[in-house]
Amino acid sequence: MSYGTPENMEGIEAYYTHIRRGHPPTAEQLEDLTSRYRSIVGGVFPLRANTNRQVEALQRTLDELAGEGRYKCYQGLKHAAPFIEDGVAAMAADGIKEAVSIVLTPQYSSMSVGGYVKRAKEEAEKHGIRLAAIESYHLHPELISALAKRVKAGIDRFGEDRENVLVLFSAHSLPEKIVEMKDPYPEQLLETSRAVAEQAGISRWQFTWQSAGQTGQKWLGPDILETIDSLSREGVKNVFVAPVGFVSDHLEVLYDLDIEARKFAAERGMRLERIEMLNNDSQYMKAMAETILGAAVVLKL
Prior knowledge:
This protein is α/β, with parallel strands linked by helices.
């Protein structure tokens, strides 16, 4: 399962309306989101293609690890077709009676992964499908290894300045109320960050948030732009961003980091680079596949 994205520029309004629980965006809100997509893709939507490739790569990996024909992968998206319910219905139509659900993001939050799992389980029950739900895999060795390799390779791009690079781990912010709920999301992100930093041999790092929603409520911070501003006042000149809460090239990476954050940093005399995203990386696929095989034990498959 994944968040979803519009298929084209014409689908942005319907997508945005779904995110807003049926409330259409204002003309200003729609133009803001449309302009962001226009800035990064010019009408081509990389997240949709990336998600499709991830499904195909996960299928190949499961075939390699468990034997061809033992597993079949289906896709379900939160805010776009095929919706989560569509994916489960497709399984039912194929006669599937036992399934494992996994969300592409490795860290758990009741506000993100929890919502995906709830929808999948409700639909599965309608069709008599037994569903084992994976909540997180944020410390899987293959995931940490893949991220650490990207951090080390990225820092090497700074050449002689590599010793003066500060690594910023980041993830999508959520409403601050999750702290009161004792939601594991912030701690799991820190655990992922610590593990990657240790394996990459990085001692100079911080965690920051990004891409907060505009809902009128307080979201987790500091935001990455606030962090960059603070670092600039401390004399930091080189920043390398590792968005460990994301796995694909999409709006929050290609616009929020590559365009907005990079421009903000450059205006303060700083160089900002980021890791190459996982997308359908073989180690990432193996992390998911091995997690799925472990969860299948619950169903005694």
